[in-house]
Design brief:
The chain is mostly helical and 412 residues long. Helix content is 76%, strand content 0%. It has a single domain, classed as Hydantoin permease, CATH 1.10.4160. InterPro entries: CodB (IPR030191), Pur-cyt_permease (IPR001248).
């Protein structure tokens, strides 16, 4: 463990904890992502001006609360999402969330590499395969150095995206007559508000479930909560606003596409590259932690292997796997709900990971994931929230019934 600076299989010691600013940059690097801009562009053309801001702010507030709770648990215990899952799912039962979480992050990494390569190829004419190879290997190389590399990369990327992207959006808005002109626009096919809210919450709830992987490095649970809320409530909201403004003004939601239309090719490539690089490195980092929980190997080597696989499969993943990844992502919110429910119920157990005793498999948690997925798809309301609550509540009920059954059997 002494050489594992990712602390893949144990808690992060207080001596290795990081400051608020560094962690804030890492988490903003996670939430600054093109996919959120695309969703923002969809909402911007499907909602009135006021309804758009209400949906974005309320949705990201809910997302911020959910991820902040997970961040609190991560920082208070020092444990990754996958080690936290051992308490509720069991030692080997935690392999299921690790496989789902780790696998989807590798898939999204490959999609992200293609998301960078394809528009750059269109703008520059450079061969797509060369762009994929260079981008994928560069992103993979940085993740080898763990959280320290994520902090350096994010410290460069976050201000660059905010400043260059902000300038481009303001120019785009000004070109169509200013903010008053955008306020006067009415959607041709208005979106139901609950659907809009579900899109906002669902935009990052899968990656948000991995919040503990990053903010477990926080010096206190309070620090983790502040950092997480800033990233999801402010950072993710900013991406939605960029997407909506760009979409309304130019027809392009991704700020890098807007910049290319404005003739700002080099800044556009920089923004697009940094935007995807930070999120992709966070995804690779988290995937390594997941597979480390399953294999017992150091996560940095697994992250590199995952990056190579994602790079080699990037175009195939982009063309064939996005729908499947979206389906798998629907299984992730119940995992977060179950981790939160178990922490609230058995908080004292989380204070001493080294001496904790785990079940091999807790079938109540496995069933809770299935019920959470069903609740998300079948119950009315906001799909991701239904999945989180469905998983948490069913887990608590099934776990209590299982404990009562075991107590009855012991007395007999």
């Amino acid at each position: 463990m002494a050489t594992d600076n990712n602390y893949s299989l144990g808690p992060v010691p207080m001596a290795a904890r990081k400051g608020v600013l560094s962690l804030t940059m890492v988490m903003l690097g996670l939430t600054f992502f093109s996919a959120s801009m695309w969703t923002g562009g969809t909402l911007g053309t499907s909602l009135s001006f006021n309804d758009f801001f209400l949906a974005v702010l309320l949705g990201n507030l809910l997302l911020g609360i959910y991820t902040s709770i997970l961040g609190y648990i991560g920082a208070s215990s020092g444990l990754s999402t996958h080690l936290l899952a051992r308490f509720s799912f069991g030692a080997k039962g935690s392999w299921l969330p690790s496989l789902i979480l780790g696998g989807t992050q590798v898939g999204w990494f490959g999609v992200g590499v293609a998301m960078f390569a394809l528009p750059v190829q269109k703008a520059t004419g450079i061969d797509t395969n060369i762009l994929i190879a260079v981008a994928g290997l560069a992103m993979t190389a940085t993740v080898y150095f763990g959280i320290a590399a994520l902090m350096i990369l994010s410290a460069i990327a976050v201000p660059a995206i905010a400043l260059l992207g902000g300038y481009s959006v303001l120019e785009a808005i000004d070109s169509v007559g200013g903010i008053e002109q955008l306020q006067s626009l009415s959607p041709e096919n208005p979106l139901n508000f609950s659907t809009a809210l579900a899109l906002v919450v669902g935009s990052f709830i899968s990656a948000g479930t991995l919040t503990a992987d990053f903010v477990r490095f926080g010096k206190s649970p309070r620090t983790a909560v502040i950092v997480t809320m800033v990233a999801f409530f402010i950072g993710n909201s900013l991406m939605f606003i960029f997407g909506a403004a760009g979409g309304a003004a130019t027809g392009q939601a991704d700020i890098s596409e807007v910049m290319m239309m404005q003739g700002l090719l080099i800044p556009a490539v920089i923004v697009l590259g940094l935007n995807i690089w930070t999120t992709n490195d966070n995804a690779l980092y988290a995937s390594g932690l997941g597979f480390s929980n399953i294999t017992g190997l150091p996560s940095k080597y697994l992250s590199v292997a995952n990056g190579i696989i994602g790079t080699l499969c990037a175009l195939w993943l982009y063309n064939n796997f996005v729908g499947w990844l979206t389906f798998l992502s629907a299984a992730i919110p119940p995992i977060g709900g179950i981790i939160i429910a178990d922490f609230i119920k058995n908080r004292e157990r989380y204070k001493d990971f080294a001496n904790a005793e785990f079940q091999t498999v807790n079938w109540a948690a496995i069933a809770g994931v299935a019920i959470g997925i069903a609740a998300g798809h079948l119950l009315p309301g906001v799909v991701p929230l239904n999945a989180v609550l469905g998983g948490a509540i069913s887990f608590l009920i099934l776990d209590m019934l299982n404990a009562n059954k075991q107590n009855t059997s012991a007395r007999v």
